[in-house]
Design a protein that fits this description.
By secondary structure, the chain is of the alpha/beta class. The protein has a domain at 6-153 and 174-199 and 258-281: Vaccinia Virus protein VP39 (Rossmann fold, 3-Layer(aba) Sandwich). The protein is 35% helix and 22% strand. It has helices at 6-18, 23-26, 28-40, 60-68, 81-90, 129-139, 157-164, 178-187, 207-217, 233-243, and strands spanning 50-54, 73-78, 97-101, 114-120, 140-151, 191-204, 252-264. It has a seven-stranded mixed sheet, with helices on both faces. α6 (129-139) links the parallel β4 and β5. α6 packs across α8 (178-187) and α7 crosses α10. The longest helix is centred in the first third of the chain and has 13 residues, at 6-18. The model is unreliable at 270-287 (pLDDT under 50).
Length: 287
């Protein structure tokens, strides 16, 4: 969970900014995961007045949160300003969306001002989960809660294996294990964490289609150790050929390990620290 370099954070910002116009058409998986998160809200009794959608992309789910909680104000936050320009197209005088450009690890949001943090498939782009969750705890009101999703280590495992047959450089982002995420939540002082995981599989006619989709949603390789030279056609073709080992029933799979979590800002523990508590003590709560 080492911090990203400043270069990597800028790369994330630039990559998603460039993808703002192509994101909605390509974000099939992102739409499915966010929809499942909204369904999970059905089981939580809450009437939030201030909602923070972190890593909001083009704001589709900011708008849906505003429709769901009609009395709430929704703040759409993203690191990429071009994404927020798309959000503003969804906003209306009837259900306005407030846009903020910022980093999840250093939120430009007042202390104890948010009732619900909603973050779908954005935390994987944070260099420090400890910093992100500490910010969640800071901005949540007592009794507020966070619901998030992120990717686990088995995400894009087929693509990772295929690249490994071509060279030893990192080409797929390193995603964090569910239990390490739980540890970070507890260190930040978030209470009653509940987590679970599922695998979703998308299929493609060829590996080029997968790589185009990743580019169109802004999910570029930002590993600091990667080769920053342009990938040659021959090396790319070698990856495409290697991916063929996974073809089943005429299509190529791409696996995504989806980690879901939610936790509360415990009213009785506001101001207390939670240092060095291991998720091992809550293993039975993790499914």
């Amino acid at each position: 969970m080492s911090d990203f370099t400043k270069y990597q954070q800028q790369a994330v910002q630039r990559s998603f900014g460039q993808a703002a116009k192509t994101y909605d058409e390509a974000a099939v998986l992102q739409r499915e995961v966010a929809t499942r998160m909204l369904e999970r809200l059905d089981y939580i009794k809450a009437d939030p007045k201030w909602i923070l959608d972190l890593g909001c992309a083009t704001g589709e789910y900011s708008a849906r949160l505003a429709r769901r909680y009609k009395g709430a104000q929704v703040i759409s936050l993203d690191i990429a300003e071009p994404m927020l320009q798309e959000v503003r197209q969804r906003s209306s005088w009837l259900r306005p969306l407030h846009t903020v450009c910022g980093d999840i690890q250093a939120l430009p949001i007042a202390d104890q001002s948010i009732d619900l943090i909603f973050s779908s498939l954005a935390l994987q782009w944070c260099g420090s989960l400890d910093a992100a969750f500490s910010e969640f705890r800071r901005v949540l009101k007592p009794g507020g809660f966070v619901m998030f999703s992120t990717f686990g280590p088995d995400t894009l495992k087929e693509l990772r294996v295929s690249w490994a047959e071509v060279d030893n450089e990192p080409h797929v982002h390193n995603f964090i294990d569910m239990h390490d995420i739980g540890d970070a939540m507890l260190r930040a002082g978030l209470s009653q964490p509940v987590m679970d995981v599922e695998t979703l599989t998308l299929t493609y006619n060829d590996a080029y289609a997968l790589m185009r989709e990743l580019k169109n949603i802004g999910a570029h390789n930002i590993a600091q150790q990667r080769n920053r030279n342009l990938t040659t056609k021959s090396r790319l073709q070698a990856v495409v050929n290697a991916y063929e080992q996974f073809r089943t029933d005429g299509v190529l799979p791409a696996s995504y390990e989806i980690v879901y979590g939610h936790a509360w800002c415990d009213e009785s523990k506001v101001g207390e620290a939670s240092n060095g508590v291991s998720i091992d003590s809550l293993r039975d709560s993790l499914t």
